[in-house]
Every structure is written in structure tokens, then in C-alpha cells.
Amino acid sequence: MATATVHVQSPAARRSRLDALTGMRALAALNIVFFHFSDPKIFGPFAPVVDNGYVSVSFFLLLSGFVLTYNYRERADRGLMRARSFWMARFSRIYPVFVFSLLMSVIVLQQEWRIRPHGEFAWGVGLTLLLAQGWSPNLCTFWNAPAWTLTTDVFFYALFPWLVTLRRPRTRNRIVWTMLGFWCLSFILPALYMILNPDGDPQLGRYSNGWWLRAVKFGPLQHLPSFLFGMALAGLNDLIPERSHLRTALGIAAFASLYTIMCFGSHMPYVFMHDGLLMPFYAMIVLALAGRNFLTRLFSIYPLLVIGEASYCLYILHFNLWNLLHDDTHLLARAGLLRFDPWLSYALLVLISIAVMYLVERPGQRWIKRWTHNLMPAEPPSVP
């Protein structure tokens, strides 16, 4: 009797850790905290970096595309990419801490109830729980202001299993041209806003709050080019040797250029700065920190790695937690600790974020994975 042997593909090998990028995530998350709650002058020569801290958000969105592609592209090429498993992994990563941040922010929800029409309030609660609030310019900062980025992340995650299987450029020149195209694509909506000025704001800046500006700043579609840019960057990263001196040179040049640009931040076009103008410099930093050089060693020190691992918790908790400590409960003032601020508050935010990572995020991930594993039938293996 003739028999046929079916060879099931082995799982894709896990790629090396990118510890330096984890350290960079820590600095980016801290910079967002400092941007929201500090006088930049207290940071001395780093004041321009803090004063323009909002640009760290677009760095995170680009980095998301890079890291996901770095980790999943090989298994997608081998036919091992499973959309359902990917989506559940991402859901288990972001939703437990997000729900915790909302439960922690009951006082904010009460404030939303007082200042909004009841119909709008109901929509805000529903959209927020579904991670869809970012699609509404009126409700994008409802209940937890920084969480608007989760709508953008969910949009990216929904597309990623399809995007990662698309045919992509293979040569260095074609990848660079593709990235240039995504960068130019990110200018379309900001340019239209600058030309048409639909909100009629004569002095457009970080404190502007028009309806159309919120749509451009917080809308997921506007940030898709950053994510695609990051995905293409992962392909370019594979073509550059890890120990190449080019990576080091790119990193030094990028950090120097970003600092120079931020020194003139008030003279830069705000809507472009917010939505992708700095992509090429972010790409140079990512390439530098994805290699092996003195920069990767510098950004891989243990304290940065710990904060970087908790950077999602820090980002999603910091805004309402700071207000809870200061404006809602006046806890630090009652304890007579305000003389140690803002440094005490920064330390508390970091420590609480690390605790939430261990007590909420990781147990929540494990519980959701066990629950979905028991609830859903196993996916069939990929067979050639």
C-alpha cells in the first residue's frame, strides 16, 4: 500500500530581542508624561524635547508597525500567520489595563456626565468600551484622554494580518522609495487642513482644539502611513548588518537632528509635527537601536528596560492618575508632600505602572489566553 507523508511546518523561530528599542519606549513614554505635567524649563537643556513631547505618540505608532512586522513576517511568509490568534494576543495585551484605567477614573466619568448631553455621554461610554472613540472628534478623548491611540492601534491590528502577507519590495532602493511614499502620504490631510483652515484658527498650536483639527490629530486613518512606514522599515532593517557602522551614524545624526528641530518647535508647522513630519528621523533611530553598537548598550540599561516593559501601562494610566493624585483627591497636598513635586509624582506614576504591569496586565493576558483557548476550537496546522 502506498502511503503519503504530510510534513507540518515547524513554528517560526523567535527573533532576537530588541532591548534598546524597549529602552527607547521608556524615554518616549516618560517624555509624554513630562509634556503633560511639567514646566519644561526644569529640564534644562532637554526643555525643547519635553516642550514638544507630543511627537512621541507618532514615534510609538511607527514603532508598532516595525515591531509587529519584525516579529510576525517570517511566520506570515511560511503560512503560519493566524489572524484570530493574532487579534486575541493583541486584545489580551491592551484590554485588561485599559479597563483598569477606566475603573480607576470613575471621577472623570462623573465629570463627563456633568458636562455632556446625556445622549453624547452614552455614545462616549459605548465607543470607549469598544475602543472606537478615536473615530469621533467629539469623543476621542472621552474618559481617558490618551486612550484615543488605542482606536488607532485596533485599526492597525485589524489590518495587519492582511498587510503582512502582501507582496513587498525586496531591494534597499525600492524599500526606501516605498517609505518615502508613505511619508508623503502622511502630509495630505495636514496640508489640506493648513490650506483650508476649516476651524478658522489664526494661531494653530498645541492648545488649538477645533473639531476638524481633532479629526486630523486623532483620526486613525491619518496615522496609517506611520504604521505602514514602520512595516516597510522592518524590511530595510533586515538588509543592514547588525554591526554596521551605518546604524551608529544614522542614530547619532537622527538624535542631533531631532534635538535641533525641537529647539525651533514653536516655529514648526504644528499639525505636520504631530502627524508624521519626523518619520525619517524616527526610522534612523529605530535602525540604530535594532543593531549592535554603543547606542544599543546605552539604551539597554536595566532601569530603562523595566520602565519600557511597563510603558503601555504608564502611557494609558498617567493622565487620569496624575489628576487623581492632585486635582481630584489632593492626596499629595493632604500628605504634605507637594514640596517634593513633580519628581515624587513622576516616581509614583512609574512605580504604579510597573505594579499594574505585574498585577493586572500580565495576569489579564494569561487569563484571556486560557479562556479563549478553552472556548475556541484549535486552528488547523498549515500544511504544504
Task: Kindly describe this structure.
67% of the residues lie in helices and 0% in strands. With 384 residues, the chain is mainly alpha-helical. α1 crosses α16 (302-309), α3 (56-77) runs parallel beside α7 (148-163) and α12 (245-263) runs antiparallel to α14 (279-289). It is built from 19 helices and no strands. Mean pLDDT is 92; it is low at 1-10 and 380-384. The protein has helices at residues 19-36, 47-51, 56-77, 83-103, 106-115, 118-129, 148-163, 172-185, 188-196, 211-218, 220-238, 245-263, 270-274, 279-289, 294-298, 302-309, 311-328, 331-334, 343-375.
List the helices and strands and how they pair.
Blueprint: H1 19-36, H2 47-51, H3 56-77, H4 83-103, H5 106-115, H6 118-129, H7 148-163, H8 172-185, H9 188-196, H10 211-218, H11 220-238, H12 245-263, H13 270-274, H14 279-289, H15 294-298, H16 302-309, H17 311-328, H18 331-334, H19 343-375
Helix pairs in contact: 1-3, 1-16, 1-17, 3-7, 3-11, 3-14, 4-7, 4-17, 4-19, 7-11, 8-11, 12-14, 17-19
Can you describe this structure in just a few lines?
The protein is mainly α.
Structural class: mainly alpha
User: Strand content of the residues, in percent?
Assistant: under 5%
- Topology pattern, helix = H, strand = E: HHHHHHHHHHHHHHHHHHH
Main sheet, how many strands, which sense, barrel?
A: none
Helical region count?
Answer: 19
> Termini, distance in Å?
23 Å
Shape: globular
Task: Point out poorly predicted stretches.
Answer: 1-10, 380-384
Counted beta strands: 0
| Global mean pLDDT | 92
Radius of gyration over all CA atoms, rounded: 22 Å
Report the helical percentage.
Answer: 55-70%
